[in-house]
Amino acid sequence: MKLLVIDDEPGMRQSLHLILSDEGHEVTVAANGAAGLELALAGRFDVILCDVRMPVMDGLEFLHRYHTAGGSALVIVMSAYGSEDAALEAMKQGAYDYIPKPFRADEVVLVLRKAEERERLRDEVESLRSAVGAGAASPDIVAESPAMRAALDVIAKVAAHRTTVLLTGPSGTGKEVIARELHRLSPRSAAPFVAVNCAAIPEALLESELFGHVRGAFTGAVGDHAGLFEQSAGGTLFLDEIGDLPTPLQAKLLRALQDGEIRRVGDRAVRRVDTRVVAATARDLEEDVREGRFREDLFYRLNVVSVRLPPLRERPEDVPPLIRHLLARHARRLGVPVPRIAPDAMRALLDHSWPGNVRELENALERAMVLAHGDTIQLDELPSSILGGKPGPSPTAVAAGGDVSLKRVTETAEEVAIRAALERAGGNRRAAAEALGISVRALFYKLKQLAID
Question: Picking from 15-29, 93-107, 341-355, 394-408, which range would have the lowest pLDDT averaged per residue?
C-alpha cells in the first residue's frame, strides 16, 4: 500500500518508515499536519498515519481539512499517553482507528493489515457496482427515457465522491427517490440517510431540527438534542425544498458545508460533522439569488453538481413501465392481485399531461385500485382530473348527502380548493399556496390534516 506518515518527531518518522518499508509498503513522511495535508491532497494514498499532537496543524485539524477537501484515504491517528480524548474525538470525526504511543512494531503492522483488508473489500464492492453500472438502479426507479438515463448516469458517477449535489425539477418528479439512490451507490450507504423538508417545519423549530440544541436553550428544551446533521454523521442528509430555507439559517448551513462545523442552539461549543448534503428544489434558485431571496454563496456551494429531473410530460417512454411498476407495488401493499387496465382507461392515462408528475400518477393508480369493482380498472374509476372533470365533491353535494355540519362542509370546501390549486399549479406547492393566499407551511399543515398526498 501507499502510506503517508505525519509526525513531528524525527525518530518516530524514521522508525515507522523502517517498520512499514520492511512490510513492503511505499512510505512517504511529513513533519507536521500542514505539510502532510499538502502531500495527502496532491497524491493518492491508501492509508495515512497521523499523530494527534503536533505544532503548526494538529491531527484533528488535519483530519477535518482532509475530509472537507474530499480526501478518501483511511486515516489512523497516533496518540501519546494523555491524548486519548483527542484520539476518540478523531474517531468520531471519521478516523478509521488509533494506535496509542508507545507501540510495538507488530501492533502497527496488525492495524495496517486490518485496514488493507477493509480496502480490499471496499474495492471489491466498488468493482461490482461499476460492473453492474447504472442499469442496476433501485427497483423504485423506472428510467427508460434518455433524459432519466442521463440523470442516473450523473448520479452513478458522482456517488463515490463527497461532492454536494443539487437536484432540480418540478414537484413530484422523484427527487427524494434519486437522493436515496445516490446514497445507496455511495461508500456511505451503510450509514444513515436522513431526509427533511425545509418547507414543512416551522421556522422557529427548523434550526434546532437541523443543528440540535442543548438543555435549557429554550422553553421545552428539557435535554440535549442531536440535530439532523449529527444524526446523519457518516451518511447523507437530504434537504428537500432548500429554496424555502429561512435567510438566517442559510448562513449557518453555509458554514456547515464550508467548514464541516455546526453549533447546537444554546451551545458555545462547535461540533465537527462528516455529512454529505444533497439538496433539492422545485424553484428557480438562480432567480431567487437575483431577487435576494437566496444567498449567492450558498447557491454556488450547493450547486457543485446539478442534476435536473425532467417532468413526466418530457419522458413519455417512462409512463407505461411506471404504471406497471406502481400497480405491482400497490398490489403488494394492499394484498391484492395486480389489476388489469381497460383499454380506454389506459389511453386516458397515456394521454394525460401529468402536471403533478410521478406523484400524481401514483396517487391516481392507488385511488383507482381502491375503487375498482373487479380485477380491471375502468375509465370511470380514474380521478376526474384525468378525465377533464373537476376534482372532488362540492360542499353543496356533501350537504345534500345529509352531512350539514359546518366543520364537514368547511373541510370539504378547503379540500376542493386545495386540490384545484395544486392541479392548476402542476403540483407545485409554493405556487398553490400563493394562489390560495396562505403560507407554504400552512398548506403543508392542511395537506396533512385533510390527508391529501
Answer: 394-408
Distance CA(33)–CA(437), nearest Å, equals 56
Q: Is the pTM above the cut of 0.90?
A: no
The angle subtended at Cα 353 by Cα 352 and Cα 356, nearest 5°, is: 110
Q: Which residue has the cell 444554546?
A: 266
Question: Could you tell me the domains of the chain?
Answer: 2-127 (3.40.50.2300), 138-310 (3.40.50.300), 312-389 (1.10.8.60), 394-453 (1.10.10)
In this prediction, residue 96 carries a pLDDT of 80
Where do the H-state alpha helices sit in 161-246?
A: 175-185, 203-211, 228-231
Measure the CA–CA gap between 150 and 169, rounded to whole angstroms.
Answer: 14
105-109, 128-132, 242-246, 287-291: the lowest-pLDDT one:
128-132
Residue with cell 431571496: 293
- Three-state DSSP at 26 gives strand
| 149-153 contacts at long range (C-beta below 8 A, 24 or more positions apart) | 151/178, 151/307, 151/308, 151/309, 151/310, 152/178, 152/181
